[in-house]
Amino acid sequence: MPVYRDEAVVLRTHKLGEADRIVTLLTRRHGKVRAVAKGVRRTGSKFGARLEPFMVADLQLYEGRTLDVITQAESLGSYGAEITQDYAAYTAANAMVEAADKLTEAEGSLQQYLLLVGALRSLARAEHGASLTLDSYLLRALALAGWAPSFQDCARCGRTGEHTAVVVQLGGVVCDDDAPPGTPRIAGSTVALLGSLLAGDWAHAEAAASVDRNQASGIVAAYTQWHLERGLRSLPHVTRETTTT
């Protein structure tokens, strides 16, 4: 059977039999892959710890009829231990890998892979707040999937201006003429924060006030749920940090 190598992020795992595990992976070149890791639940397993959720590894696999089989695993990013020690990071990481699982299929997506690896690395290193990191990841992952939100021009007609009406079904902010009756309004500072999260402008995002962070998180969650239809089961469990500004 054909043997291949690839880098991969572990999205989730399931027990199989007494000692094996089914591992769902987002790979660098082969998209989403489901593979069997034989014997990894035994105490003497050589690479069991390298195949836990949030870990990044260089893998050797061979193609099976229904599931591929992992034969080698070398660690590239040991992010699991650091992430699981912090509850906010852990809940954010769970939402990230669930989103990646739903947004990717068999075809490869290098951009989605690199985005997820970067987000998990940032969580493990506590480079930014976990909630901000998650919201930025979700917006950028959805944009890569073809659902880029607009937080500057009207999402419906393209009119420029400082729009404060948000309609997630239309793709972001809309002008007053295109806003349906009763459309909720948000502060301009919240719109600016959403734009910063999408662009990766961390200096502005980290300076945002709690009220803007909370409002932005709600909009990101609603936008994610709209495009993923059933939403993310992990999202309600995410811990949202607060600021004093």
From TrEMBL:
Offer one example of a GO biological process linked to this entry: DNA recombination
InterPro entries with a match to the protein in the record? ARFGAP/RecO, DNA_rep/recomb_RecO_N, NA-bd_OB-fold, RecO, RecO_C
Record's keyword terms, sorted: DNA damage, DNA recombination, DNA repair
Provide the DNA replication/recombination mediator RecO N-terminal domain boundaries.
1-79
Record bears the keyword DNA repair: yes
Query: Any coiled-coil ranges, and where?
Result: none
- The keyword Nucleus belongs to this UniProt entry's keyword annotation: no
Q: Which Pfam families match?
A: RecO_C, RecO_N
Listed under GO cellular component are: bacterial nucleoid
Q: What does this protein do?
A: Involved in DNA repair and RecF pathway recombination.
The family annotation for this protein states: Belongs to the RecO family.
- What this protein is called in its record is DNA repair protein RecO
Q: Which organism's genome codes for this protein? A: Agromyces bauzanensis
Give the organism's phylogenetic lineage. Answer: Bacteria, Bacillati, Actinomycetota, Actinomycetes, Micrococcales
The gene designation is recO
